[in-house]
Design brief:
The chain is an alpha+beta fold. The strands form five sheets. The protein has a three-stranded antiparallel sheet. A hairpin with a 2-residue loop joins strand 6 (154-156) and strand 7. Helix content is 39%, strand content 14%. The relative contact order is 0.14. The longest helix is centred in the first third of the chain and has 24 residues, at 69-92. The protein binds glycine and manganese (II) ion (2 copies).
Length: 331
């Protein structure tokens, strides 16, 4: 009998409830049930009922939604390490290199700067691979006219960053690439502008959709009344994902996105940390004009809500068109 089993049975006979998440590790569930039986035998004929089991997920999630100062400090360090690695990766990417070389450079930069490990598997997606949402084979050879999408984050002291940047491998955006990049950047910056206490993740997503739809109309990729496009979700072929998620010890951190009764979107408050990551994707089967085919752009920063507004933890890595071009055209 292990020390754990003994200690668990002793604790259980004196407890009035157990917090445990059933169903995640079925073998461990079975072990606990056996220990329940031992605890019941220990209690004997006292008439005591079985102890209720509560799922702690919600409580633990709630403890993690609003970050303490110490947590934000760690997230800032993870963000700084990741920002520097991204800038370096954009600079060294050249036509003819393989995606995995960039992946390795990111990992080297993370570890050399003191990161414990990756926050999640790095996505290094050149050309049309950027349209594959969770691509991480990272084995394509990069071509002259490719965009390169890098989604990578370092973990520092158990807290992770989550950054996406897109750059032209050759150092210069083509005209259609620049149009799409600028459209996503406009949406991303406008979402950051509205992020403040009292807004919800839902508000930010709705705002991203509105700006992206306007941009797609300007580029003649969508037409018709904005309201109708949104109601019919006609933007979904180009923007099939959400605009952000909680960020912390997990890259997709835990915690409710809704009010306690799960009826209303939760209002952001100082200390909430999350990503803002709109994108536009035009895969091979996209119903878009031909000149946009194969373009995939997402721009992702990490945000902490402050008393008045928000702070961008990942602002050290550039995202304006001219900044990106000058970074990527360096030898
Ligand atoms: N890298 C995972 C995400 O952006 O959600
Ligand atoms: Mn993300
Ligand atoms: Mn990401």
């Amino acid at each position: 009998e292990s020390i754990f089993d003994e200690a668990f049975v002793n604790a259980l006979v004196n407890a009035d409830r157990l917090y445990y998440r059933l169903g995640v590790h079925p073998e461990f569930d079975m072990r606990l049930f056996r220990l329940f039986h031992q605890a019941m035998r220990r209690l004997g004929r006292t008439g005591r009922p079985l102890w209720p089991i509560h799922d702690p997920n919600e409580f633990l999630g709630e403890m993690r939604v609003v970050k303490s100062k110490a947590e934000v400090e760690r997230l800032q360090i993870a963000a700084n390490i990741s920002a520097e690695a991204h800038a370096n990766a954009m600079q060294l990417s050249k036509p003819g290199m393989h995606e995995y070389e960039v992946e390795a450079a990111l990992f080297h930069a993370f570890r050399a700067a003191g990161a414990g490990r990756l926050g999640y598997p790095s996505i290094v997606a050149s050309g049309p691979n950027a349209c594959v949402l969770h691509y991480n084979q990272n084995d394509r050879r990069m071509q002259e006219k490719d965009l390169l999408l890098i989604d990578a984050g370092a973990e520092f002291d158990f807290y992770t960053a989550d950054i996406t940047r897109v750059c032209p491998v050759s150092g210069k955006f083509t005209e259609p690439q620049r149009e799409i990049y600028q459209a996503v950047l406009n949406a991303q910056k406008d979402c950051i502008r509205i992020a403040r206490p009292g807004k919800s993740m839902r508000d930010i997503h709705n705002h991203a959709v509105e700006v992206l739809v306007e941009e797609l109309k300007k580029l003649k990729i969508l037409k018709g009344p904005t309201k109708q496009i949104i109601a019919k979700e006609l933007y979904r072929p180009y923007y099939p994902h959400g605009t952000g998620h909680w960020l912390g010890m997990d890259v997709h951190d835990v915690g409710r996105y809704y009010s306690r009764d799960y009826d209303n979107p939760r209002k952001l408050e100082p200390g909430c940390v999350f990503t803002i990551e709109p994108g536009l994707y035009f895969g091979p089967d996209s119903p878009c004009p031909a000149k946009y085919k194969g373009i995939g752009v997402r721009i992702e920063d990490d945000i902490v809500i402050t008393n008045q507004g928000c702070k961008v933890l990942t602002s050290a890595v550039p995202k304006e068109v001219d900044e990106i071009e000058s970074l990527c055209s360096q030898p």
